[in-house]
Amino acid sequence: MKKIFFILFLKIQFFCALPLFSSDLIGYWHNWNDVNAPYIPFTQIDSRYTIIEVAFAVPTSPSDMTMTFVPDGISQAQFITQIQTMQSLGKKVLLSIGGANTSIDLTSVVNKNAFVSSLTGLINTYGFDGIDIDIENGNSILALGGTIAAPTNVAQINLIDAIQQIMSNYRLNHNSKLWLTMAPETAYIQGGQSAFGGIWGGYLPLVHALRDSIDILQVQLYNSGSMFGIDGQIYTQGNSDFIIAMTEAVIQGFNTGGGFFQGLPASKIAVGLPACTSAAGGGFADTIAVKNALNYLLGIGPKPGNYTLVQASGYTNLRGMMTWSINWDAVSTCGSQYEYAQNYQQVFTTATVLSNVSNTALFSLFPNPAKSYTYLTIANHSDPNNSIKIFGSDGRLIQTVVPLASKMLLNIEQLDAGVYFIKQGNYTYKLIKL
User: Fold this and answer.
1) Closest C-alpha to 133, from 145, 125, 141
2) Which of 151, 190, 311, 430 is the most buried (most CB within 10 A)?
3) Are residues 247 and 371 in the same domain?
4) Among the options 53, 136, 185, 339, which is catalytic?
5) Structural contact between residues 227 and 285, judged by C-beta atoms closer than 8 angstroms
């Protein structure tokens, strides 16, 4: 087959506010209409949201943990099509479980089995990429004896087992990992520093048991009372200090009456905040406070308040931002439209600037014709031991590949037409896919 040589790429230098890494903007989406935060057709969600949490799957009744979800305003088939459309754009669509108005109680094997089978069915029916644990009421999220590593609350043990079984079912059915996110309130996580019992630290056994499976922990830094930071000081919601202190706590870990909670990597931590003042009962922080807090956490800005990071260099791989909710972010009557998404973009998007021309790279594209090519052969690596990273024009990491030889075949079929940057070691090349 004839190969087409398509080349002369520019070497570029990255002038960035922060190192290139993968980040996400996570938003909850209302499956209902609210006069103040109206229903948004799923396919009209702002494109900056990369992970969409569909709110909510709820139990059939307080005593029956069979979980239900019915799309509002459209048919099941239409909603499935909309999910597939969003997934084709590279979005992850997760089904959020619980919410503020429902209670999850898995004290019996019957309820645990109903929970597992019904959620497995919903995931398979709609094609969700994962589940989000946003349980805010019920025995399953209470610390009722034991320790973080060895809880004795039967309902909590059953919830851990149930999530593991749901994930196992998904892998069996789809041969891939089910996404798992959690959005506990502060009392259930950082509150464990004050006491370990009931709601205080109630999620910590869940996070500990499922830490290897969790993709993102996004504590709700709103509707919260004052909380201890790991420096022993008390911080109040709605400002930079609270955001920084609560975020570092879940990365560094902290002592509790149930033992030490080992933190999660920063790459699994997203900062969860209300999209605007009306989106929550309290805890809203304005865009400047949020930006200052995140810049400090990312190691690219000065300390904005009183809290001093334990890790002075910050956390350059912090996962991103979460908000309640996309619907609230979309309205212009509560802050400017998509103010939260815009703030995320300003903080996490990496700017790229073309610099001097040097070090051309020889790439070959095939099959013929060029517009139908699906593979890219990288013919001269700067160092075959360095991983190859593909970034979008907005700086978002799309793919990482570890080369096995001095020449490799890179599948770029999944890339839409557009501009990309291929980075290896100290070299970065520009790719234009037709």
Assistant:
1) 141
2) 190
3) no
4) 136
5) no
Claim to verify: residue 360 and residue 344 sit in the same structural domain: no
Q: Is residue 168's pLDDT more than 90?
A: yes
Q: 227 and 233 in contact (C-beta within 8 Å)?
A: no
Which is nearest to 323 in space by CA: 348, 343, 298?
343
Average pLDDT for residues 167-196, to the nearest whole number? 97
**Do 62 and 200 belong together in one domain?**
yes
pTM as predicted: 0.78
**Encoded tokens for 148:** 């973080």
Last residue of one domain, picked from the residues 348, 381, 415: 348
Query: What local confidence, expressed as pLDDT, does residue 403 receive?
Result: 65
Is 245 found in the same domain as 224?
Answer: yes
Is the pLDDT at 305 greater than 50, yes or no? yes
Q: How many CB atoms lie within 10 A of CB 182?
A: 24
C-alpha–C-alpha distance, residues 173 and 167, integer Å: 10
Using the 3D structure, point to which of 348, 382, 397 is the last residue of a domain: 348
Q: Which secondary structure element, helix H or strand E, spans residue 80, and what is its range? A: helix 76-88
Examine the residue annotation and report whether 248 is marked as an active-site residue of this protein.
Answer: no
Phi, psi of 87 (to 5 degrees): -65, -35
d(CA 73, CA 39): 9
Indicate the pairing of strand 130-135 with strand 92-99: parallel
pLDDT of residue 3: 37
Largest CA distance in the chain: 69
Q: Which residue has the higher pLDDT, 367 or 14?
A: 367
What CA–CA distance (Å, rounded) separates 36 from 239? 25
Number of domains the chain contains: 2
Provide the pLDDT confidence category of residue 395 given band limits of 50, 70 and 90: low
Predicted local confidence at residue 407, as pLDDT: 57
Sign of the Cα pseudo-torsion (294, 299, 303, 307, in order): positive
Q: C-alpha distances in angstroms, 372 versus 88, 106, 338, 351, 357?
A: 18, 52, 36, 29, 28
- pLDDT tens, residue by residue, 90-106: 999 999 999 999 999 99
Inter-CA distances, 6 with 371, 378, 403, 434, Å: 11, 11, 21, 11
